[in-house]
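Re: your question from the hallway

Yes, I did run it. Sequences:
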Amino acid sequence: AQTVTQSQPEMSVQEAETVTLSCTYDTSESNYYLFWYKQPPSRQMILVIRQEAYKQQNATENRFSVNFQKAAKSFSLKISDSQLGDTAMYFCAFSGSDDMRFGAGTRLTVKP
Amino acid sequence: ETGVTQTPRHLVMGMTNKKSLKCEQHLGHNAMYWYKQSAKKPLELMFVYNFKEQTENNSVPSRFSPECPNSSHLFLHLHTLQPEDSALYLCASSPGEGQGAFREKLFFGSGTQLSVL
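Structure:
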C-alpha cells in the first residue's frame, strides 16, 4: 500500500519569507499523481498544486512551487512571499491506479 | 462557495441516535466521496461513488451507511456510533471523466464536525 509521510507536524514562517514543506511517499507504481491541498480554519480543503509523475518539470502555481524528486520519492512544497492567508493545514496526497492516500498534514503558521 | 455544500456543519449525537449527513454538489461532477478526518491522522477514504454506483468501500463499519440517489447528492447515514467515530467528515466530488477518479482534482465541502457522546 502507498504511504505518504509528512515529517513536519508544525511549521512557522515570517510574512514575506519562503518556507518549504516536506513530503515523501512510497510506491511501486511508475505513473501516478501527487497533490498538495490546503485546509484553512474554514475547514474547506482546496487544491494548491498537482504534479504528474511522468512530467519531469516541477509544477508551479503563482507563489507555490514543488520540488519533485521521483527517484527519491520526494515531493516538497515551496511557498514564496508567504502571506497571512497562507496559514492553514497542508496535506500532501498520492494518487495511484486505484487509491488516493493523504499524509497527516503540516500546520503552517505565517507570522506578521 | 466551492460548489460542494455539506450539512449540518456541526452534529452532536448519542450512541443510540440515528442521524444523516448530507452533501450536495453543483459542479456537474460524476464522482463523490466521503472522507473521515481525525486529529493528527491522515484523511481516511470511506466511500466512493462514480455515476451513482459505489466503487469503493474502504472496510468501513456497517454503522456507516452511504446513499447516493443521484450524481449531485450524497448521504452518510449514521447509526449506533461509537465515541471514536467523532471526527470531521468531509465530502468531495470530482469530474469522473475517465482519468480514474483518484487522479482528478477533488473539490471538498467544509465538512461536518461530528461528536459522539
